[in-house]
Design brief:
Length: 111
């Protein structure tokens, strides 16, 4: 992630959120050995100044539809796209599959 992106929550910018879907997916990947990272991801997000974005019923309902519109049909990505669209947020990502979507606004943070 670019330094300016990491600093955004602390610099008076609009609130930044972390989806429960991101925390869930990260924990799955860390426990399976596919990703290395801190065990206390929730606390880390809090210290970074990120607000929590829960998965709500209407998010889940719409994500089921959105999943079929994504090229790789990843359920976590479908949830993130859905939450960004329904909550009028910009999805901050380096994922090339998501950067091309017209379903929500995205911000490219790839290096």
């Amino acid at each position: 992630m670019r330094p300016a992106t990491r600093a955004a929550p602390r610099s008076g910018a609009p609130k930044s959120y972390v989806s429960a879907a991101s925390v869930w997916e990260t924990k799955i990947k860390v426990r399976s050995g596919r990703l290395s990272g801190p065990d206390g991801i929730t606390a880390l997000c809090g210290r970074a100044g990120l607000c929590e974005l829960p998965i709500l019923p209407w998010h889940a309902d719409e994500a089921a539809r959105v999943s079929s519109e994504l090229p790789h049909r990843d359920p976590f990505d479908a949830m993130l796209v859905t939450q960004a669209a329904l909550e009028d947020m910009t999805l901050v990502t380096a994922d090339r599959h998501l950067l091309g979507t017209s379903l929500c606004r995205t911000l490219d943070v790839s290096c």
